[in-house]
Specification:
The complex is a heterodimer of chains A (about 240) and B (about 240).
Chain A (H helix, E strand, L loop, with lengths): L3 H14 L2 H20 L11 H4 L2 H13 L1 H9 L1 H5 L6 H21 L2 H10 L4 H27 L4 H17 L3 H8 L4 H8 L3 H9 L5 H23 L1
Chain B lengths: L1 E10 L2 E11 L4 E5 L6 H8 L7 E6 L2 E2 L4 H7 E4 L11 H11 L5 H14 L15 H13 L5 E5 L7 H15 L3 E5 L3 H7 L2 E6 L2 E6 L1 H6 L6 H10 L3
Helix pairs in contact in B: 3-4, 4-5
């Protein structure tokens, strides 16, 4: 397990050795804040909360996290460094966790860099800081689950484009299952319990509570277990 | 030191390596010869634990690669074909990463190890350059530095002189020769002069099977007066 640290460190710093990190951070922050202001009517809502900021995260992550995750393994396979990595004295699990944690930490940095939004509502009004904190927590947990899915699809191919498309598709399904419009359409044909069951597998369903300040253990467990499952499959896919 | 016992590798119905066995002792430089696609790289990848054999196993210093791959990887230095490395890192950063994974975490020891590897491979002048900006010869030496960093008991080198100019080839050969006394070395090549210049033993592998396992002198004696590549051609085309 101590072998995770060097991999984690190399990967995390690796983002900043290439333009990837800076492009991603700028795009992520502009998109997330832009959506909150222009689509989410952040000012017009006249509320000291970040709900209109967080509500777009499942949709934004849908495209941005596969952009980070697609290269995790595809790049190693394409450049042949996977052979180097797996002939060093570490287990597949060490490598998977090191890479995953580095990417997750990077995403957490991106999400937390939106802190001026929190400062803005704090300056303009009197927000409930607990709700904001739980929004950030939910967003970071959800990012981990997205990333797990993307890391897995990335391990399946050495082509980054295929990896990206597969990741977006897989995440799209996981978002759609809980999208109110989709559930509305479903409830016309399925009984309520079935719709609820389906919605239970969605990022949106579990993330919603966080944006309202509710940290429900079952939501935390959902994100963590989805992350764990995808990482387990990731190890299996690499050892195959 | 390296004991290969009946290695077999199937890819689907295709048999890449069929029952390969040999032993390499300390002080030996074993030249692994064969036409492209004969199973040289596959055999080496199985010894290093990068791919798992369909049957058979390899022992390095008594550690079984199928039972305890991490222990084997600790003993080995491996230069994969075309020396893959993380291009966005500098030579120094890359070797620091390798040192950390190899367990040299203390700053002083890490620096000593890196400097020693840089000295051995004459890389001091490019230590702060990113690897992707280096020429092929330098990249190959970075691969060497990475394989030598922990002063391994056994070295596996997959086409170490491939793509180098004649001077660089000589340098690499001198380097291998200088280390051979206290190590077991396996190197693959399709340059026959290299076998003559370097190796204490030759294995010719063709269609996944060992055809010849003897000293370069004995190989020469098979057809007195003939050039090595003529002998090679007779041996590898007879069963095609």
């Amino acid at each position: 397990m101590s072998q995770i640290t060097p991999v984690l460190k190399r990967e995390f710093l690796g983002y900043f050795r290439s333009p990837v990190a800076y492009v991603f951070l700028v795009v992520f922050l502009m998109a997330s804040v832009g959506l909150a202001f222009f689509v989410g009517q952040f000012f017009r809502a006249n509320q000291a909360s970040l709900e209109s900021f967080f509500v777009f995260h499942p949709w934004l992550f849908l495209f941005l996290i596969p952009a980070v995750g697609m290269r995790l393994w595809s790049e190693e396979k394409r450049s042949g460094t996977v052979e180097l990595l797996f002939t060093l004295p570490l287990t597949t699990l060490d490598a998977v966790l090191g890479k995953f944690l580095a990417a997750w930490a990077f995403l957490a940095v991106a999400i937390l860099l939106s802190f001026p939004m929190a400062i803005t509502v704090g300056y303009l009004g009197d927000p409930d800081w607990g709700v904001i904190a739980s929004g950030y927590l939910g967003s970071i947990l959800m990012a981990g689950a997205y990333l797990g899915v993307c890391s897995l699809t990335s391990a399946l191919t050495k082509n980054q484009v295929i990896s990206f498309v597969l990741s977006v598709l897989a995440c799209l399904v996981l978002v759609f299952l809980g999208w109110s419009v989709f559930n509305g359409a479903l409830s016309a044909v399925l009984p309520v319990w079935a719709v609820d069951l389906i919605a239970n597998f969605s990022f949106v369903t579990h993330f919603d509570a966080f944006t309202k300040g509710i940290i429900d253990p079952k939501d935390v467990v959902f994100f963590l277990s989805l992350t764990g499952l995808t990482l387990f499959l990731n190890v299996v896919a690499l050892e195959r | 030191m390296i004991e290969v016992k009946g290695l077999v590798k199937h890819y689907g119905s295709k048999r890449a390596v069929a029952n390969v066995s040999f032993t390499v002792n300390r002080g030996d430089i074993l030249g692994f010869l064969g036409p492209n696609g004969a199973g040289k790289s596959t055999t080496m990848k199985m010894i290093t634990g990068f791919i798992s054999p369909t049957a058979g196993t390899a022992l390095v210093n008594g550690h079984d690669v199928t039972r305890d791959p991490v222990a084997v990887k600790k003993q080995l230095g491996y230069l994969p074909e075309s020396a893959p490395a993380y291009g966005e890192m500098t030579v120094e950063e890359f070797l620091a990463f390798i040192a950390e994974v190899r367990g040299f975490r203390a700053r002083a020891e890490k620096t000593t190890r890196i400097n020693r590897a840089l000295d051995l491979t004459h890389l001091q002048s490019v230590r702060t350059q990113t690897i992707e900006t280096l020429s092929k010869g330098y990249k190959q030496r970075v691969g060497f530095a990475q394989a030598l960093l922990h002063d391994p008991a056994a070295l596996i080198l997959d086409e170490p002189t491939d793509g180098l100019d004649p001077n660089q080839k000589n340098e690499v050969r001198a380097l291998i020769r200088s280390m051979a006394a206290e190590k077991a070395v396996v190197l693959s090549t399709h340059i026959l002069e290299e076998v003559d210049a370097l190796c204490t033993r030759v294995i010719i592998i063709s269609q996944g099977k060992i055809d010849v396992d003897e000293s370069p002198a004995a190989l020469r004696a098979r057809q007195p007066g003939a050039r090595l590549d003529e002998i090679f051609r007779t041996l590898t085309s007879s069963d095609a």
